[in-house]
Queue: 2 jobs
Job 1
Amino acid sequence: MTNPATATTSTGEPSRMHDTEVSAPLAFSSPDLRTLTERFHFDLKEGCIWLDSQRVLILQAEWFVELRHELIAALGVEKARGLITRLGYSAGCRDGQLALKLHADRTLREIVDSGTQLHALQGTVAVTPLVYEVDLDAHHCHMEFNWKNSIEDHAQLRTPRPTHEATCWMEIGYASGFLTTCFGSSVIVRETECAALGHSGCRCIAKFEHEWDDPSEDVKYLQAWSATPTPAAQAPETNGGDLQAADEPAPERRGGAGLQALGRSAAFNSVAQKIERVAGTNATVLLLGESGVGKSLFAREIHRRSARADGPFIELNCASLPESLLESELFGVERGAYTGANASRAGRFERAAGGTLFLDEIGTLGFTAQGKLLRVLQTGEFERLGSGKTLHGDVRLVAATNENLRRLVDDGHFRLDLFYRINLFPIEVPPLRDRRDDLPLLIEDFLARYRARYGRTHPMQISPRAYRALLSHDWPGNVRELENVLERAVILMNDGEALDLHHLFTDPAEFPSEGGLLVNDAGQLVETDEGRGPAAGDRDGVGEGTSPANWAQRALQECDASGLPGLERRLVMTALREAGGDLQKTARKLGLTRAQVDYRLKKWGETAAP
Ligand SMILES: [Zn+2]
């Protein structure tokens, strides 16, 4: 991703401001708005809007007005205020993290000002900064700002209930959370004037918690009244069991016990809830779903959440071995049972005693193995190959298949009685395209893992269009495909380079075929034609006429020729290279027609081949 021209600040010092006239608005030093707007992704097909990795909503303001009224009516002013303040605080923390991530190369002051952009983009309030005195070394913060058009004032003014207090609770929470995240130290924001009280606007002061005389009055609204986690703790969401643990920091989330199934989508939570229900029982579980959806991970979750968690988890892919070997692998073999059986060996059933046996691709089992498996499931008894001694195994079976077992039964390839036995508790694991909400989480997790695996020191950055491509791709190979694509991308990337489209899709046929929607400079939603074919290797940001042409800057830097003709030729050739040899794209970059580009190439004896 390339950054457009850096916004300059008229006030000089980036992160420490000096005394300023309180009433005179400060000049904004926000980063280019595009850095944020290009992170919006409207996925109409899936009904999702994304702001970077957060799914966002467009809600009617009246929705918020009614919610606020209902909350006050149901909980009383104090509790409603606490709840709304905390919700604002969590949102501010999340946006603070986003601002730190998107503007990692900017000054603290610019990052803070980007919060006003976020607020305005979300339609909640317009911020005018008045005072900015921040010295992190001296642990000092004194900021003042005005709010205009606060959604909460709008809500308050729509109710007949008069108020004697400032009412912008969500904004106070949001600003406190945002600044706390940016400064890494607790900031409390107070509203000293409020439009809902008849003032011309809302006036706010932000200080570090220790700089207020009595912050407890403010802090009490940031702490829940019950034992629920405080917003500051950024506790994981708890919907659908604790399988997802979505908001935990990545290392803890992955834990020491290897990979875990990750997700927070409705489809994921539906699976998580079923697993939560069945894990504690001894019931046989059948995991259904396409290849690559992570059935093995879910099988491990069932084991991990069962009373057998301390026992072994033994896995076998039934399709990986020929039937003759499969039986000895499953049930063990006695020495001399067949030529080559030089030693006695326990099978997977024996080794899984007290634990869980996971049989993947169970639809590929042959009839003999099916019969033996049925017997174990019915009686717990089996024999090693070549042995008359009956063994007993206390084993919990989890099976998986990407085939339609019912059809295999109808076609005579699978025993009906075994089907009934293992189909006791089927769980359909959805394909990745049906749980797109989980993509941001999965992408972040995989990138963190590959960053460590390949010794990358820089944080992983993804260009907006690459991110959109990841979100809109159909992922026929599911999580495994995503995993492979990201691993390959990390290998292809230089350390510190942003992940871009050409790292993701090496085959032009793989490029996403549909453009997305973007917010343009005029604030309108427009279609992009990015990601169409190999020309998407173009690195100049999104769409046409977006950023200053960095390719042109590069061409100028590389240009060793003097004079206009040499420069012109260098510009055209660089544009052609950047466009992957696509004449149409090259022409658009240069503001020429295709014929004009073609004419020049012919004149110079150049070809359009990249
Ligand atoms: Zn207000």
Job 2
Amino acid sequence: MRIEKSGRVVVGLSFGYHDSSCCIIRQGELLAAVQEERFSRVKNDKSFPKASLRYCLDAAGVTLEEVDCVAYYEDPEKKLARQIWMGCIDSADAVRRRDVARHIGAEPPQQQIRQAIGYSGPIEIVEHHLSHGASSYYFSGFDEAAVLTVDGVGEWATTSYGRASQEKLSIFEEVDFPDSLGLLYSAITSYLGFKVNSGEYKVMGLAPYGTGRYVDRLRKLITLQERGQYRLNLEYFGFLHTDRMYSDQLIELLGVAPRVPESEIQQEHMDLAKSLQLVLEESLLAKVDYLYSQVPCENLCMAGGVALNCVANRRIRQNGPYKNLFVQPAAGDAGTALGAAAVAYIRMFGERPCREPLQSVYLGPDYTSEEIHRLLAGSSMVFQDFRNREEELVQFTAERLAEGRIVGWFQGRMEFGPRALGARSILADPREGDMREKINALVKKREAFRPFAPAVLCEKSQEHFALSGDSPFMLQTCDVVSLLDLPAITHVDNSARVQTVAENYSPRFHALLRAFERLTDCPILLNTSFNVRGEPVICSPLDAIICFVRARIDYLVLGEFVLDQRQVPEFWKIGVSNRPIKKDNDPRAVGHAVYTFL
Ligand SMILES: [Fe+2]
């Protein structure tokens, strides 16, 4: 069905599992995308993304009545079939059965969409892996590409192979649940005492400290087969029958006790992380080789949670058969809203949206200087006003960074996806030996083994990092080749996960890096996300102030205003540090006081 009535507005939604999100495409252009957790302040929020939807409609300047189609990121009937199957094989476990029954009894998403927002127009259901694959291909700018999606599970598919050309994407082969590379990685993640669905990064960060001495044992967990297929050896896994990801047989096979969460990390845990990483990489390379045998072209698009493993992507870039690799920056489930919307757009209007490669992920809310000023003026905070003094603002910030201060940096539209890229970032001097410990002590309180990431002036990146091309989304890991000593951002294996900063997409951040370079001869800053451990990245100016005060960050650069920790009124410190973060889906609630919605 083709509809020719309208402003061609398609909304993409992902919700119900984890990382709910919403995006909006109008007239072929992606105008806004945001994760619900940023508004609700509930990390990995899976609830209906009502606040995100309100924001997206507002950003696109349309009302709900003008929306031509809402796209949902997976097929609920197919997913239900898998859930019923899981219930059938699992009748012995009452708790698990109840859990499955709860899923089965849940309202279908179409009904939820209509009830939550009163929408009565068309709803397009887009299969989960098609949503993932589309979120990569349609935003890659490639005409012809092979498409690989690897995640935990959606409906049934856990790995899928696709080809795309002439703007059409089709999936021609898939591996189905319970055989899943994503679940294999998650099972060992939980074995190592980290949280499934969020601790996988930590395993990747831990790996370079270890050796591959468990590789042979871990290879017993997976059998690679013809046509890109593989099977998990299910006796080592518990996720089908229990609420534990692994089985007693795995403990026996590995001969290492599962790590108790938050307990000390031993060498054997590092070795296990390294071995897992190696097994993942060799499995992925085999998948990519198979894909190339079916789709021999230059371009590879990847998506799915496993595609966020940038160390594996580096191997694929270096050792795989494809010349170019595009990974969607929100490759996990949050990004599926983009793919679902793109597919629905083509179904509705017969035309590909977003022909250009995705250049920036600054797709979230921004706030005017007037809004920020109003908030600051009403807050009794002491602040410096740099309005219309751009150079001075940048120079002042660069000087504080060069003095070794930690700076909260809040500028423009918020990033979509897991990485802070200079819009909601904490910045610091990467040359300081104890900066990692300093930031961890104040803000992040995260595991000491994880390095922070660098942001570098685009035009200077090759002097310091062995990058192949630009890395605007901080998705490429490479060797540090700099003559500078950069302990805060260099991993134990001499690698770094780099963001290259271009003037046209982040002008103020670029200017800051240049000013810092003028002062220090170092065109690089440590860049980590603006949040404290366990909370989502900040969204609004009020979130920024609360995080700045609670974490005792030295300076906060809030648009064109600067706050100094030493000048924060005492009563603010007491009030903020004791105050629970309000968990509320209403964006007009605390934390979003500045942004007003329709
Ligand atoms: Fe997924």
